[in-house]
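job 3f2a | input accepted
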Amino acid sequence: MTAWNASSSSTYVRAVALHKGRCKTPLSLIPSGSATGLRPDTLVQLEQLVQWCASSSVEHLLLYDRQGCLRQNAAAICKALARNATVADCTRPEARHRTFDVQLQRQKIRISMLDAQDGRAHIARVGQVLASAVRQGYLAPKEIDIALLDDKLIDSLVPAPDLMIVLGGTYCRLHGFPPWHLRLTEFYHVPSPLWSWNSTPTQLSRAHFEQALDLYSDCEMRQGK
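job 3f2a | predicted structure (225 res):
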């Protein structure tokens, strides 16, 4: 992620997070820009990223942008990926989270798309479900605690990412990404060059991608009690 430019007329790939193989949960990609369209180089970057994920045994790619541009263009993205000669099939996106599967020659990659509304709206939906369960007698108010909320928030959205690669800016920004999904996430930041900050989008290179995975594989996951 990087400083989000509200006046931008197109979407840049800004960050990316990981699932399976060298990582156990999704790779997340976070762009910025407005919901008015996709840059051609964004589609190219996505095609490259899918190939990199396949070669690194990543099975789930999570895409996030604050305004939902990627989510609104999920069908176009799926169509663009399907034109790639190395992609055997691309399923139609599901409506709720715009999730679809990309079948490559030897591996299937699941792609999910979220936006900022999946944070606030998701909390509201979970609250409504719990309130309904209490009213119907399926759940006692005293049974509602932090552990239960954590389970409902995480299990009913998408798997939490193990690794997030943040592109651009002088420091990391989440831009409304659901924070409860990032408690055990490792971050790798690729800052913008000083001369191009907030003007030219920072691109994710294969070298950055591999270095982020290497650094993640060296991390020891410690879950405190």
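job 3f2a | The two ends are 30 Å apart (CA to CA).
job 3f2a | closed
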